[in-house]
TrEMBL record:
Species whose genome carries this gene: Xylanibacter caecicola
Name of the coding gene: pheS
Subcellular location(s) of the protein: Cytoplasm
The protein, known as: Phenylalanine--tRNA ligase alpha subunit
Any GO MF annotation of the entry: phenylalanine-tRNA ligase activity
Pfam families: Phe_tRNA-synt_N, tRNA-synt_2d
Length: 345
């Protein structure tokens, strides 16, 4: 009697069908759940004569295995069918998808990192959403400095009681240097590449976000001569062995003395052309000796240690190397633009 019931259920299970996942689940409950038909056979199994129990037990196990395999197969078929029936995504790029290449900013940033890494600088990173304390206060910015105004900086959250707790989008990666100096003692030799934000109108020559690489070296007896030699080595590695540099006095809150650095125009060789505005020189970065106030704010004894810092825009260096006429092209993700840099990889 029980063997006939098993054979009947086996034939029934082999012909099971399901048109969706819900029907497949209903079949699982019908046959394989605790109150299912296969489990109900165990009640009849108790009355089977002892000499037949082995044969009947094997048949029940085969029935259960067949039911599991059949229902799982139906479930997979339903899932595949539902995936295929999702339709065409009209917002997806048409096939075949045209691939670009590495972004020119990435190419140049990696080249800058490689040059300074070979000089012994290590990478340091920090948050893009920062507090005023690390972006401005520890960098020796005056309380009324224009960079602390909403017309120059993006504010995320303002604290009326304590301006150092204002939350901003960092306007330079100097905040990374501040955080690193807080937790490390000299010698320090780091570069901090990353994206920064400033509240500017978006034009061919400016954007509300861009990328920087800043460097910091602090140790005993560090001089401006050390800074000049490092920057000269960088310029010749990046733009060619014949490149010359020029340092012009400037002002930054976090360095003293400070300078702007120009390189001889690599297009005209310093003779003067439209690109360098017929001066023979092109500005590429700012630099200087770290202000003692910055060292003290970050917990470093300025009477024992000195250091230099520099910062450059990656977009600026990329423009000098590849003469991209519009900064907006860097962020539009146009593969036609990116394909122009295939050989640079």
């Amino acid at each position: 009697m029980i063997l006939e019931k098993i054979e009947s259920l086996l034939a029934e299970i082999k012909t099971l069908t399901a048109s969706n996942a819900e029907e497949a689940e209903a079949l699982r409950l019908k046959y394989l759940s605790k109150k299912g038909e296969i489990n109900a056979l165990m009640a009849d199994f108790r009355s089977v004569p002892a000499e037949q129990k082995k044969e009947v037990g094997i048949k029940i196990n085969e029935l259960k295995q067949t039911a599991m395999e059949r229902i799982n197969a139906l479930r997979e078929q339903c899932e595949t069918a539902e995936t295929q029936d999702e339709g065409i995504d009209l917002t997806r790029s048409a096939y075949p998808i045209d691939l670009g290449t590495r972004h020119p900013l990435t190419i140049v940033k990696n080249e800058i990192i490689d040059i300074f890494s070979r000089m012994g600088f290590i990478l340091a990173d920090g948050p893009e959403v920062e507090d005023d304390l690390h972006v401005f206060t520890k960098m020796n910015f005056a309380a009324d400095h224009p960079a602390r105004d909403m017309q120059d900086t993006f504010f995320v959250e303002q604290n009326a009681e304590d301006v150092t707790k204002n939350i901003v989008l960092r306007s330079h990666t100097s905040s990374v240097q501040a955080r690193y100096m807080e937790t490390s003692q000299p010698p320090i030799r780091i570069i901090s590449p990353g994206r920064v934000y400033r509240n500017e109108a978006i034009t061919a020559r400016a954007h509300c976000f861009f990328h920087q690489v800043e460097g910091l070296y602090i140790d005993k007896d560090v001089s401006f001569t050390d800074l000049k030699q490092v920057l000269l080595s960088f310029a010749r590695e990046m733009f060619g062995a014949d490149t010359k540099i020029r340092l012009r006095p400037s002002y930054f809150p976090f360095t003293e003395p400070s300078a702007e650095m120009d390189i001889s125009c690599h297009i005209c060789g310093g003779k003067g052309c439209g690109f360098c505005k017929h001066t023979g020189w092109v500005e590429i970065l700012g630099c200087g000796m770290v202000d003692p106030n910055v060292l003290e704010q970050c917990g470093i004894d300025s009477k024992v240690y000195s250091g230099y810092a520099f910062g450059m825009g990656v977009e600026r260096i990329t423009n000098l190397k590849y003469q991209v006429s519009d900064l907006r092209m860097f962020s539009e993700n146009d593969t036609r633009f990116l394909e122009e840099f295939t050989s640079a990889n």
